[in-house]
Amino acid sequence: MPLGTLDRNPPPMFRQGTSAFSKLLFCAALAVFLMVADARFKLTAPARATLALVLHPLQRALLAPVDAWERAGDYLRGTERAMAAEDLARRQLVQQAERMARAAQLEAENQRLRALLELRPALPVPAIAAEVLYEAADPYSRRVVIDRGSQQGVQAGAPVINDAGVLGQVTRVHMFSAEVTLLSDKDAAIPVLNTRSLQRGVAYGGADGGAMELRFMAANADVKAGDLLTTSGLDGVYPPGLPVARVGAVERRGDSSFARVALQPLAQPDSVRHVLVLGPVQELERARSEAQAASAAAASASAPARGGSGAHQGAKP
């Protein structure tokens, strides 16, 4: 039979239906439709959620060996870290015990010296723990808001400190919150004492909002970079001896009789989370004066009573 007469069409039972190109176009259009429907109308979200729910047990089963291996590694690493932390804590405990013994000895010596010199004893300052909620939205001031207010005993003018030093001062008190003006605010000022030279001065907030400066210092003043400044206690607001700032740079110019002293605050407000609100020293002074007046009045009132009873006993025979 000649080749040209052969029927090359497949038999009816082997027919392939539509062509491959038509199938490709259909699948491509279906894929585009599903992508658009999923992105715009979220039509496949229920199907995806159902599939994820069905496959979740299988995923957990497949991840079980990996989780067990990671937990074993974490256990071993955690044991090593715990042992190292315990060793470090023991060393720190020994150091702190030595410091506490030395501090107790110095405190007893300080009390004896104050009694010898007839100086008034240091005031115990109460403190209220607080947490910083957020920074105030005013772009022209440096303030933070804490979660303690008048209901917890916070008063306007109270100093606010953290573990590094003085942070600022309470300037506005609400029922359950309070605003704290930071030392770096342009309107803030605090009396300070140079711990090296024992020279007093006043530290002000910087214009850039992140630093401080020691103003009105003579050009020949004994101040150097690295000096530690603490509260002097002369204002009656801040207790003496609290760390405030450290001298960053000293600029002495020949055309000015004052030196420009830049300070770096020790308490950085950007990393502060928990603070202590101290009671104003003026309130403690007033309370102590009232207590002394009350004790003196009680003593003067009991003196005539004792004198009268003594006279009565003397006249009895």
Summarize the structure.
This protein has 317 residues and is α+β, with helices and mostly antiparallel strands. 41% of the residues lie in helices and 23% in strands.
Structure description:
It is a single chain. By secondary structure, the chain is α+β, with helices and mostly antiparallel strands. It has two domains: 26-122, no CATH class; 127-285, Beta Barrel (Thrombin, subunit H), CATH 2.40.10. The protein is 41% helix and 23% strand. It contains three helices and twelve strands, in the order H-H-E-E-E-E-E-E-E-E-E-E-E-E-H. The chain has helices at 20-41, 45-117, 281-315, and strands at residues 127-135, 143-146, 159-161, 166-173, 178-182, 189-194, 200-205, 212-218, 228-231, 243-251, 258-265, 274-278. It is elongated, with a radius of gyration of 39 Å.
End-to-end CA span: 168 Å
Q: Please identify the top-level CATH class of the largest domain.
A: Mainly Beta
Strand count, sense and barrel status of the largest sheet are:
6 strands, antiparallel, barrel
Quaternary structure type: single chain
Low confidence ranges: 311-317
Integer count of domains = 2
Q: How many strand elements? A: 12
The percent of residues in helical segments reads: 40-55%
- The CATH topology annotation of the largest domain reads as Thrombin, subunit H
Q: What structural class do the secondary elements suggest?
A: alpha+beta
- What Rg do the Cα atoms give? 39 Å
Shape descriptor: elongated
Q: Treating each run of at least 4 consecutive H or I residues as one helix, how many helices?
A: 3
Helix-strand topology string = HHEEEEEEEEEEEEH
Mean pLDDT: 80
Estimate the strand proportion.
15-25%
CATH superfamily of the largest domain: Rod shape-determining protein MreC, domain 1
CATH architecture of the largest domain: Beta Barrel
Strand ordering within the main sheet: 1-2-5-4-3-12
